[in-house]
Design goal:
With about 220 residues, the chain is mostly beta strands. The protein has helices at about 10-20, 85-90, 170-175; strands at about 5, 30-35, 40-45, 50-55, 75, 95-100, 100-110, 110-120, 125-135, 140-150, 165, 165, 195-200. The protein is built from three helices and 13 strands, in the order E-H-E-E-E-E-H-E-E-E-E-E-E-E-H-E.
Length: about 220
């Protein structure tokens, strides 16, 4: 699964990397993003790509309340097109989730050691995501998202049995954000094929309340 990640670059770098529209967005560096928090999400609109905050943990449109979102932080690549909670979003509401790295926990005996995974030479990259809108009882609209996961690559297989889907640049961003039928996009939902850097970090990462540069 992918249960924590970091996003440490500023808006100008995000705008350039993902060809966003020029509007400003208050983007602060984050070093320990956790489920249930608002995260920056990139979607395609008739006017171009936009970035906006969404709650991490997808809330299906038919949900009775928002609590279900905590169980929906990840969607498996193998079943995202079949699960009732995800299939509608997978078909029509795909998104990019900017990240600078993500955490996984490696079990070493009775201890779980947090590890930070980054891409060499890449200050920001995109995780494949899906998003949904949910009408709250007070009439407001809640926007939420989920990160798609796949089988681990050689760097992650000794740490965890899943990893987030990482899209490899504009040649994959464009089709992922399009309204093409997802049948033609399954080849994108594969383990990352490039190099990765993996190193242990402080166990302070275990607490979502800790969010500072000292974590990495």
């Amino acid at each position: 699964m992918c249960g924590r990640f970091i996003m440490t670059v500023d808006f100008e770098m995000i705008k350039a990397a993902f060809r966003l529209r020029a509007e400003l967005y208050d983007l602060q560096p984050r070093y320990n993003i956790a489920p249930g928090q608002d995260i920056p999400v990139i979607t395609n609109t008739p006017g171009g790509r936009e970035i906006s905050p969404m709650r991490w943990g997808l809330i299906p449109h038919w949900a009775k309340d928002t609590k279900i979102g905590y169980k929906m932080i990840n969607a498996r690549a193998e079943t995202v097109g079949e699960k009732p909670a995800f299939k509608g979003a997978f078909r029509r509401r795909r998104c990019l989730i900017p990240a600078s790295g993500f955490y996984e926990w490696k079990k070493e005996g009775k201890v779980k050691q947090p590890m930070l995974i980054t891409l060499p030479g890449e200050k920001v990259f995109a995780l494949a995501g899906i998003w949904e809108h949910w009408l709250a009882p007070d009439g407001s609209m809640v926007y939420s998202c989920s990160i798609i996961t796949t089988k681990p690559n050689k760097y992650l297989e000794g740490i965890h049995n899943r990893m987030p889907v990482i899209l490899a640049g504009e040649q994959e961003y464009e089709p992922w954000l399009s309204l093409d039928e997802p049948l033609f996009l399954q080849h994108l939902l594969r383990p990352y094929e490039g190099d990765m850097l993996v190193h242990p970090v402080t166990t302070r990462v275990n607490s979502p309340q800790d969010d500072d540069p000292g974590l990495i």
